[in-house]
Structures are given as C-alpha cells and as structure tokens.
Amino acid sequence: MATRDKSGGIPDSAKNFDQLPETARIDIAVIQAITSKSRATIYRWIDQGIIPRPKKFGPTQNFWTAGDIRRALGM
Predict the structure, then answer these.
(1) In this structure, is residue 4 part of a structural domain?
(2) What is the largest CA-CA distance in the chain?
(3) 52-57 contacts: CB < 8 A, separation 24 or more?
C-alpha cells in the first residue's frame, strides 16, 4: 500500500497520484494526503456517499482504487 518518503511524511503514492493507474490500490493515508482531510472526515464522506466504501484486502486492510477516488472527487 502506501510507502512513505524517507522523512516519514507524505506517502509516495500521494506524491505521484496523477500518474497512478486507475487500478492502483491506495489506502486512507493517500486519501488524507491528497485531500488534506482527517481520517474522521474521510469516514464521514464515506457515510455521506461522497467517496465509495473501501474494498477489503485480507481481514484487516482496506483499500480504494485510484480511479474510484478520482471519479468521486472529480479529479
């Protein structure tokens, strides 16, 4: 999922979000970085239908595709 740069800051996937393929899996850290919103706000957006619910990857990891987030946010 999201690997962070050497300083522990913005995930690499967020820095290169525009170049990611539509099917690239991203996690909540990437969404937080590209929207500058908190985790709580992102989950509120899910409840409000602004962004889709995440897909499951294994028992504990959630992810979205870059394409789903681009469409939801009008990017």
Answers:
(1) no
(2) 35
(3) 54/28, 57/25
Closest C-alpha among 39, 27, 37 to residue 66: 27
Q: By the 8 A CB rule, do 64 and 2 touch?
A: no
8 A C-beta contact, residue 53 and residue 73: no
For 64, the domain range is: 12-73
Q: What is the total count of domains within the chain?
A: 1
pTM: 0.80
pLDDT digits (tens, 9 = 90+) for 10-68: 777 788 888 899 999 999 999 999 999 999 999 999 999 999 999 998 888 999 999 99
